[in-house]
Fold this protein.
Amino acid sequence: EQKKLVGAHISSQIDALAKKDWKLAYSYASPGFRSGVEIDQFTFIIGTQYGMLVDNEGYEFGACTIASEKLVQEIAVTSNAEVTNLTYILSVEKEALGVDSATASQPKLEA
C-alpha cells in the first residue's frame, strides 16, 4: 500500500514536470524542502540538473524501502536513449507525503 502511494506521488510530480507545470510539481515536495527552497530555485534546479524528468520518455519503479523514518524509492528514467537511476527520498509530515530529494547516479547508455 505504501509503495503504491509513493509511486503515485512521484508519478504525479514527474508528470507535472513533463508538462512544465512548476507550481504543481513543487507542491509534491515536502514542507521541509519547500521551507528551504523557493519555487524559482526549484525551477532552476530542475532545469539545470533534472532535465531528464522534464524530457522523460518513461520511467520504471525499482525497490521501495524505509530507512530512518524516510521512504526511499529507486526509479529508472529514460530520456534521450539514456537511463538515469534516481533515488528519491520522501517523508511524511502531518500525514502528508512529500519529496525531500532526488539524487541521480551516473547515466548508462542503453544497449
Q: What stands out?
A: Residues 2-18 form the longest helix (17 residues).
